[in-house]
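Agenda item 2: (6S)-5,6,7,8-tetrahydrofolate complex prediction
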Amino acid sequence: MIIIGELLNGMYKNVGKAIVEKDRSVIQRIAKAQVEAGADVLDLNCGPVSKDQVSDLKWLINAVEEVTDRAIAIDSSKPKVIEEAIKVARNKTIINSTTADAEKLEILVPLAKQHNSGLIALSINKKGIPQNKEQRLELAANIVAFCIENDFPVTDLYLDPVVMPVDVAQAQLKEILESIREFKLLCDPAPKTVVGLSNISQGVVDRSLVNRTFLIMAQAAGLDAAIVDPLDEKLMDAMITAELVLNKQIYCKAYLEAYRKSKL
Ligand code: THG
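Presented output:
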């Protein structure tokens, strides 16, 4: 499983404050903690507090790249912001994200290709979030077709079915799990799949339990990557154990410890 650390998001109060105050030490401490906990990639999102997304995201990228050479996911809904921010990145990048809308694909697919970057694509469009598996698959198939036509390697494409909070869209979660399984069948070689896991538990009491239960089910459906809180130890233990069950880790008595050591 490719672990994408979610904590450098302006949605979190401490991070939002650090971005506004340009406090590098707070950002760098959170970056290092996520790397030490096993994050392969760090998601960077300025969140709602940012008044100048381009300069804030560039600042965030620089601050993070000073302390780690792990990949970064440049997280913004605005293609123009991603286009500017990616210019300052030296680490490997994943663009997060495009939708199935032509005007976004036309900018972000060539940009990802030019920078040798991964690309996360949400199976949504301007009309909104799909209400069933069929609509998600149709949008994902359009995204895959666009990538193939434009010579973007689908193995660098991460299809995201868009996880919804369980308290507002409970019936969607089964559709999302089935979408993950079917996204993998859209072409050969298969595209990758990703979810923003913590979306599921916004407003829920025991967030960690809901998160890890869904993550394991998504892993069983073939999930390749997840945007998660890597400091949640119970979540990481469940993720590693699910990899063991899926025969993606070699069993030994100390398999949790062995996995963590392999990430350092
Ligand atoms: N798909 C893709 N990218 C994404 C998402 C996705 N990026 C953003 C988001 N969704 C994933 N990251 C988060 C980060 C934080 C939270 C949820 C998803 C979160 N934050 C607390 C909250 O809102 O309750 C913040 C509260 C606090 O201040 O502590 O839940 O789906 N491609």
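Discussion summary: The beta strands are 2-5, 41-44, 71-75, 93-98, 118-122, 157-160, 192-196, 225-228.
Owner for follow-up: CH.
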